[in-house]
Amino acid sequence: MTLTVRMVRRARKGVGWRALAMTMSLLVMATWLEPSQSLPQGAPETVCDTMLPFHSGGSVLPQNSVSPFSVETSASTVGQGQTVRVDVTGVPEGLTFGGFMVQARNRNPPHQIVGQFSPARDGTVKLMNCENSVNNSATHSNAGAKPQVYLEWQSPVDFLGQVVFNATIAQSYSEFWVGVPSNPVQIVRRDLGAVPLPTAGPQPAFGAALPTTRAPYVPPNYVAPSAVAATADPFYNGCGVSKNCFGFPDGCVNTKTCNSIAAVTVRGDIYEFEIQSGRGSNAAYVAVGLSDDAKMGEDLTTECVPENGRVTLYSSYTSATPYAAVRASVPQNSARLLNASIVDGVIYCRVERDPVTVVKGRTFDLRRQQYHLLVASGSSLKENSVGYHDIGRLPTGKAINLAEVQDLSGSSNLLVQLHGAFMIAAWIGTTSLGIIFARYFKQTWVGSQSCGKDQWFAWHRLLMVTTWSLTIAAYILIWVELKRAVWHAHSIIGLITVILCFLQPIGALFRPGPNDKKRPYFNWGHWLGGNLAHILGIVTIFFSVKLPKAELPEWMDWILVGFVVVHVLVHLIFSITGMASERHLSQRANTFQMGEMSPHHQQHAMRNGMSMERKMDAPYGAMRKGLLGVYGVVLVLFVVVLILLVVLAPIEQFLGKS
């Protein structure tokens, strides 16, 4: 029994006011000479880094046994800016403690403190400002015995990853545990409209630089759940023997290293799906879809999403344009959650689906139809659906009978990628350059020919034949890939572009002679058809960015806008140069002194002058050639960047791997 407790008991037995005064004096002295079991006003901010109680001389060390207290959270996955409850309790019921200090730290280096705590309504919690941030740590406001403490913690809006709540818990002056950890909590990206921010409490000072700190303190004998040695994953048991297994990256089932994986087991009319995210993938969800064409859109999906500390099952139907996973369209009782868990960030669920599900008049019959399996996972959530599959997604290379166990491999997007690359090369590259040659270079390189034709015409013809060839090839490739017509803005405008492109060279074969009276009509028709096809081709590429099957980043629109701006500016500069050239030619023609010439000599001189002008380059030829060179280089850069975005799509996943 401590000195202070014995003196208080003596005072209660009636020693008298003098004795009581002496007792209180001694109590003050005892408090001064030796800190109480728990600092009555909570931990000072000088211990933010060590989390060690402020015991004089450091003579009392933390316990090295397993803590009888635990730190638990109400959810294992939360969105940025959302709130989670943190409970500090004794493992044996009724066990009390006096003091505590809690922080949420980045699980990975530099282990900085993140987020902020909200003030407790009952006044039992004191908030601390560590590392120059507001309310990012919490401690006790009084040293009284308490069986548990409930804290509200808001995740930061500028952090993604895992955090661990570390606590120092003091049962008495000489008995305290430092670095008692919670299970990891995953902070995931969340759409702005879906983030329910707290309505009370001060806001964190986001944007301040966070200094590097030491790793969270863990007692030597304490073994955190994440530190347990990984054993062989039982998920892969039976793959290729009793169940179909498929995951990404392609071929990961053989090495048992999938970032996400799905398995299908069929027993009669019972269809069981297992889905699991990869260790360390930071997934906010994992899903498997049933698809007719191995592309995102118009698929029946099964999604496993950690919510409020447990895994929740959702069924969705994905729309093709614009892409969205709609849960309201699918009967949620068409699938039942049989088993689920989330351990050390790994999401697992086992689901039984009905053999037949009808969604928007479309029947998904697992017994009679074949489907591609499509595995996907992502690090973000939307308000009523999962977010983008930025961690990855992969469909099987062929549609399968789910009851037939077989080895599965991923599908190839080669034809789609070639289609996109050919169309970009044709309508951003060769067409743009071909139009420039035909419009502005008829009076450049005069007298120089290639294959018996003027230079401008030879280059124009070569570039436009290339456009025609690439466009027809790309159109054939996409038909081979899709095997059916899919009508939306991209396909409709694209078809019109292909028709115009196909007719242009055919019309050129019937071009009237230079002096034919129908030649002006041909010139206007040829000009209109070519420019209309060019404009529609670029618009079609803009619409392709919105297609979920293309998996192109939304910011590709800005690259296309940049190309349009450059192309228009180049046309403007060439037009101004052309007007200046015509004015120069007009002034040169007026220098002829024809006033004293007879009409016959005037006509002869004018014919000679015009003939001479046609045999030499128009003025400012060097400027036109220089601008053409610069435009050609910039155009190649645009084409290369856009083709890379198509070929490496989804670019976010590619950059994540690299």
TrEMBL record:
It comes from Drosophila madeirensis (Fruit fly). Residues 1-38 form the signal peptide. The keyword Glycoprotein applies. Belongs to the FRRS1 family. InterPro entries: Cyt_b561/ferric_Rdtase_TM, DOMON_domain, Ferric-chelate_Red/DefProt, Reeler_dom, Reeler_sf. The chain crosses the membrane at residues 418-441, 462-480, 486-510, 522-543, 555-574, 628-651. Residues 33-202 form the Reelin domain. Residues 382-580 form the Cytochrome b561 domain. This is Ferric-chelate reductase 1 homolog. Residues 258-378 form the DOMON domain. Its cofactor is heme b. Keywords: Electron transport, Glycoprotein, Iron, Membrane, Signal, Transmembrane, Transmembrane helix, Transport. GO terms for cellular component: membrane. GO terms for molecular function: transmembrane ascorbate ferrireductase activity. It is found in: Membrane. Coiled coil: none annotated. It is a multi-pass membrane protein. PANTHER family: CYTOCHROME B561/FERRIC REDUCTASE TRANSMEMBRANE, FERRIC-CHELATE REDUCTASE 1 HOMOLOG-RELATED. The keyword Zinc does not apply.
